[in-house]
């Protein structure tokens, strides 16, 4: 069975990789790639973390997946990853002491982002589990973002009485510039109608709780709505059934586990809280058109 590393603290990540970077705060870290030790990068494999991660790759970044999304292995890449997303690193041959870029980790409480409140994550779509967390940059854009991070790092290193607030403001500038550069697949975030708000909240709740909440009624109860009203609203906004969205989210997670870990089909079924692995295989084939084993071979 594959080991999925769980990093609850930023320091857990630093120790596991033996990065040789100084963590001056328990809730925030920024470091220059050129000053980090990448010798043990292959220890990462598959992992989740309880904090945000931002990487600005100036030289070519490593091959990686975040949930069901494959991140392009390119230069000038910005990745913005919210807590609890499933990450898998592939080839690390490019990761060496000469690589250039910046890494940042910070806990939700550092920027007062409450995971129970989806407003922040909807404001910045790259942090949503529904979207790929990557932006391809041109040379001018990489220079601009690198300058923001260098100024932020200066405050981190100097640790003046106002450094924390200055860092938070630079982070907000970085988020806004990233939002400006990000190409969202739809404009759903601009729609503030009541039906759209219900739909957005439903999608966010599904992303957070699809392993334990698997019925429309369970989500309707969480949202203090009737199952009928929730189903009709979701259908009206998206054209999809609420149960279809729940099942598709389960399927995407199953595909991520099959693609990114050596878990057996039986282990994947249990990871998704299916009591019967045979039913899981039927469920997977009904939604995807192929069995879990066929999907793994085709990948």
TrEMBL record:
Alphabetized Pfam families for the sequence: HTH_18
Domain of life according to the entry: Bacteria
Alphabetical keyword list: DNA-binding, Transcription, Transcription regulation
Domain HTH araC/xylS-type residue range list: 200-298
InterPro entries with a match to the protein in the record: Homeodomain-like_sf, HTH_AraC, HTH_AraC-typ_CS
Molecular function GO labels: DNA-binding transcription factor activity; sequence-specific DNA binding
PANTHER family recorded: ARAC-FAMILY TRANSCRIPTIONAL REGULATOR, TRANSCRIPTIONAL REGULATORY PROTEIN
The name this protein goes by in its record: AraC-type DNA-binding protein
Organism: Fodinibius roseus
């Amino acid at each position: 069975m594959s080991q999925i590393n769980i990093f609850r603290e930023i320091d857990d990540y630093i120790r596991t990789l033996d990065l040789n970077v100084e963590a001056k705060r328990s809730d925030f870290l920024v470091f220059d790639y050129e000053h980090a030790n990448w010798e043990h990068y292959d220890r990462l494999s598959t992992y989740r973390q309880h904090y945000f991660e931002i990487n600005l790759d100036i030289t070519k970044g490593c091959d990686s997946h975040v949930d069901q999304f494959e991140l392009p292995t390119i230069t000038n890449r910005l990745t913005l990853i919210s807590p609890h997303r499933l990450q898998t690193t592939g080839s690390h041959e490019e990761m060496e002491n000469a690589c250039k870029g910046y890494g940042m980790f910070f806990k939700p409480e550092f920027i007062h982002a409450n995971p129970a409140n989806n407003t922040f994550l909807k404001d910045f779509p790259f942090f949503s589990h529904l979207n790929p967390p990557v932006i391809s940059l041109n040379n001018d854009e990489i220079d601009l973002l690198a300058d923001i991070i260098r100024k932020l790092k200066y405050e981190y290193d100097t640790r003046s009485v106002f450094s924390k607030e200055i860092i938070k403001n630079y982070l907000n500038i970085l988020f806004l510039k990233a939002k400006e550069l990000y190409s969202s697949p739809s404009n759903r975030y601009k729609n503030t109608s009541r039906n759209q708000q219900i739909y957005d909240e439903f999608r966010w709740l599904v992303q957070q709780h699809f392993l334990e909440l698997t019925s429309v009624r369970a989500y309707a109860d969480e949202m203090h709505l009737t199952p009928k009203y929730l189903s009709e609203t979701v259908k009206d906004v998206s054209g999809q059934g609420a149960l279809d969205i729940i099942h598709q989210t389960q399927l995407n997670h199953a595909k991520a586990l099959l693609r990114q870990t050596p878990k057996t089909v039986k282990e994947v079924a249990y990871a998704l809280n299916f009591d019967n692995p045979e039913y899981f295989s039927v469920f997977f084939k009904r939604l995807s058109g192929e069995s879990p084993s066929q999907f793994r071979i085709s990948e």
